[in-house]
Amino acid sequence: MLHIPIPPERAGMELDEFLCLSFPLLPKGFLRRQVRDGKVLLDGNKTIPGHRLRENEVLIVDFEEEDEMPDVQVPRVEIDVLYEDEHVLAVDKPAGLAAEPERWARDNACLSGALLDLALGRAGLERPEDGTTIEHLEGLPFRPRLVHRLDKDTTGVVVVAKSIEAERGLRAAFDAGLVQKTYLALVEGEHRLPDGESEVIDLAIGPDERKSGRMRVDRQHGKPSQTRIRVEQRFKGYTLLACEPLSGRTHQIRVHLREIGFPLAVDPYYGRRNSLSLSDIKRDYRKKPGHIETPLIDRLTLHAREIEFPRVEGIGRIRVESPIPKDLARALKQLAKFRAP
Q: Cβ contacts of residue 220 below 8 Å, gap of 6+?
């Protein structure tokens, strides 16, 4: 059982937010259930998760890991911070990193775990090595909150709120269409859109009922979806497109590009390749005897290059850019060398 007095700097904070900062290794839903079940008391009395705390109130916390606590331990991974102020972080997500722990692979690293480690590190704290998840940690400066996501194998910039107020403001900006995102997509085919011009793909998208977890163009029952595209670089047989999603549907860019005949060069769901190798690009490629060819890129050829969003305090906008990752840059270099237009 823990007795936690409310410090002056936390007065006015909602109880569940205070618990998230005090027990950062635990999911917010779990903590809210403990409050409702009476395992978190305020001055000895039951309360609600949204109660606004007052200075010198005392929390009595009496819950244990046996209380249906899921295992949230994930491996540590470092991520680069592209931008930061008092309200938000913008980080550079690498390939192969899911946003949250995956249902069937909870031992894998994830972006939310990496962000938590970042916040803990700022406070001179670390996740326990023994797998313990319930631990009261004082001094955590913020609890990171993802406000949008990228597919596991998509790289690029992701914006993270550092407070509940920032999260609400950013989500409202997304809902109002005030956030502009630009992706780079390496696709199969030579798009004939003139340089300097753009076009909008306007095709409704809905779930693909034949394939779980996938989407498809559904003109009758799908949700309205628009993606603006323009040509960034041309190659023989391939095109690098800049794609700006004007709506926020799952797999939107990938589905739209496939539908117009320009699927991602690497996309196991909506394209025809799991990887792109030099032998796919260089027409006279000869494999050395006994040599196993390493792909130039073996994940989605999609990169979230840039995001622009309103400042949380309401004055001006912030633009953050992510550098092209090494694997995509390597593929583009070989295309420029062997597939120049």
A: 204
Amino acid at 23: F
What tokens were used for 45? 């009395």
DSSP symbols for 195-235: TT-EEEEE--EEE-TTSTT-EEE-TTTSBP-EEEEEEEEEE
Total count of domains within the chain: 3
pLDDT tens per residue, range 260-303:
999 999 999 999 999 999 999 998 888 878 788 899 999 999 99
Residues written for the chain = 341
Q: pTM of the entire structure?
A: 0.81
> Is residue 47 scored above 50 in pLDDT?
yes
Q: Are residues 137 and 86 in contact, defined by beta-carbon separation less than 8 angstroms?
A: no
Same domain? 246 vs 125: no
How confident is the model at residue 319, as a pLDDT? 97
| pLDDT tens figures, 7-17 | 786 788 788 87
Distance of alpha carbon 182 from alpha carbon 246, whole angstroms? 10
Query: What H or E segment, with its residue span, contains residue 157?
Result: strand 155-161
pLDDT tens for 214-231 read: 999 999 999 999 999 999
Q: By residue range, what is the domain housing residue 6? A: 2-61
**Contact call for residues 307 and 157 (beta carbons, < 8 A):** yes
User: Which positions are catalytic?
Assistant: 151
Distance between CA atoms of residues 21 and 27, nearest Å? 11
Q: Which residue has the tokens 């069937």?
A: 104
* Residue 327 pLDDT exceeds 60: yes
Whether residue 183 is found in the same domain as residue 236:
yes
Residue with tokens 């809905």: 206
End-to-end CA, the chain: 70
